[in-house]
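EI: anyone free to look at a 73-residue chain?
SC: sure, send it
EI:
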Amino acid sequence: MQSITINEGRGYSELETAIQSRLGAPFNRIPLKICIIQAGSGIEKEMGVYDDVIDIFTGEPKAEHFHITVYPK
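SC: here you go
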């Protein structure tokens, strides 16, 4: 598990870039499908390419309250 900090005003592409930079070569060039999992629900919600981080997480989320899973597109 890794932690990534991103400003709430940022969008999908900035989050994708931050994740890709952590992955390093050669994986940093693979387009990603980003899904949000709210704690306790077990249900994945795919983040749209036009979504901003603030649209997904309202309020001040704590790390234990959500997870993001990433898949190659």
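EI: The chain is about 20% helix and 25% strand.
SC: 👍
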